């Protein structure tokens, strides 16, 4: 059982504060990497996930990208940290949580794309002006901030 599952066993569905990290990965053409998620099906999002005990935020971001995409990112740059009441969610099973999300971007990576089929249906790069319609709401906010403040193509 993992850390979050252990905590849930103790507290049930009561609200928790969860810390996660995501990465906007940009290729040499300025395209952004997204993953089509297993759940909810048809929804796209950024590579990332929850922090493990003792991890630094940057380590979480690097580990999650490697696990979900097969890529090794380096030279992470901070976009922002997102938190607050607007980041409250209730999972399908009734678990309540407030997300604190550390968002980074990376223009440097190595490796070949591989899909972790337990979490994703596919991973691929998109032009910033041609992103899928169904993107996780919080991830769309992160992408918009990245494109506004950090994109070289705008």
Write the layout of secondary structure elements.
Layout: H1 3-11, E1 16-25, E2 32-37, E3 44-45, E4 47-50, H2 57-69, E5 72-74, E6 77-82, E7 88-90, E8 96-106, E9 108-110, E10 120-126, H3 137-149
Parallel strand pairs: 1-8
Antiparallel strand pairs: 1-4, 2-3, 2-10, 5-9, 6-8, 7-8
List keywords for this structure.
10 strands; five-stranded mixed beta sheet; 36% strand; alpha+beta; three-stranded antiparallel beta sheet; Nucleoside Triphosphate Pyrophosphohydrolase; 3 helices; 154 residues; single chain
Please tell me about this protein's structure:
It is a single chain. It is built from three helices and ten strands, in the order αββββαββββββα. The protein has 154 residues and is of the alpha+beta class. It has a single domain, classed as Nucleoside Triphosphate Pyrophosphohydrolase, CATH 3.90.79. The strands form three sheets. Strands 1, 4, 6, 7 and 8 form a five-stranded mixed β-sheet that branches. It is globular.
Quick recap of the structure?
This protein is of the alpha+beta class and 154 residues long. It is built from three helices and ten strands; from the N terminus they run H-E-E-E-E-H-E-E-E-E-E-E-H. It has a single domain, classed as Nucleoside Triphosphate Pyrophosphohydrolase (Alpha-Beta Complex).
Q: What's the overall geometry?
A: globular
Q: How many structural domains?
A: 1
Mean pLDDT: 94
CATH class label: Alpha Beta
Distance between the ends: 45 Å
Flag low-confidence runs: none
Q: Summarize the biggest pleated sheet.
A: 5 strands, mixed
Instruction: Count helical runs.
Output: 3
SS-based structural class?
A: alpha+beta
Report the count of strand segments.
10
Percent strand equals 35-45%
* Subunit arrangement of the protein: single chain
Question: What is the N-to-C order of secondary-structure elements (H for helix, E for strand)?
Answer: HEEEEHEEEEEEH
CATH topology: Nucleoside Triphosphate Pyrophosphohydrolase
CATH architecture: Alpha-Beta Complex
- Share of helix among residues? 10-25%
């Amino acid at each position: 059982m993992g850390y979050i599952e252990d905590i849930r066993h103790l507290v049930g569905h009561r609200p928790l504060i969860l810390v996660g990290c995501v990465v906007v990965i940009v290729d040499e053409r300025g395209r952004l990497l997204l993953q089509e998620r297993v759940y909810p099906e048809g929804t796209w999002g950024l590579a990332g996930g929850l922090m493990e005990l003792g991890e630094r935020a940057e380590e979480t971001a690097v580990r999650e990208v490697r696990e979900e995409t097969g890529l090794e990112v380096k030279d992470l740059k901070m976009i922002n940290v997102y938190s607050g009441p607007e980041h409250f969610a209730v999972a399908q099973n009734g678990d309540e949580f407030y997300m604190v999300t550390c968002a980074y971007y990376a223009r440097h990576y190595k490796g070949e794309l591989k899909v972790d089929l337990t979490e994703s249906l596919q991973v691929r790069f998109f032009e910033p002006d041609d992103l899928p319609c169904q993107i996780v709401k919080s991830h769309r906010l992160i992408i918009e901030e990245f494109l506004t403040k950090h994109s070289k193509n705008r």
